Amino acid sequence: MRTVIAGGNGQIALRLERLLTARGDEAVGLIRRPEAASEVAATGAEPVHCDLESASVEEVASHLAGADAAVFAAGSGPGSGSARKESMDRAGAELFADAAARAGVRRLIVVSSMGADSEPPPGTNEAFAAYLRAKGAADAAIRSRTDLDWTILRPGRLTDDPGTGRVQLDADAERAEIPRDDVAAVLTALLDEPLTAGHTLNLITGDTPVPTAVAALAR
What we know:
9-stranded mixed beta sheet, 39% helix, alpha/beta
């Protein structure tokens, strides 16, 4: 399987790339900064310079050509302002989806965020509120598409704790923590199960092994 990952040097993406290449898959990590290439290459993945905030649909589609799947794991980052939430977290995700369709790559998984479907509560940090609104708008645009086999994954609060391999993965999980290791493991399992297309899923630490949690969605 060949998978192209937007945000290829992000913390979740690097973990996903290691998992994919370790089992013999091809992984391509799209990166905004050329100096991040070494991080991606160290996972065994192929780094490709492509800035989703300035690239055309045709350019991104050229990098997706021949792929079996695409994963949007890019983000504006916690230090960015509201404008970048709009240009990356919303517009970047929609551009990536357009490019996948243009390249004939139907399978698309988007890493979003829990709470993206609701208006942020009063008192929410302005940048984080903009992030949630941008993610929600991108998710809604992608869910409206019939030309893609999309899955939207919404992790809870991300940690760098070692993965447990046990999760709660469904539409109803309430906000809690999840190690990035386990997010990458779930993404890998979702890539292997096409019958999870059409699901919007919350993800937190739970009691169910990752393969069992994903298999249950395909029944």
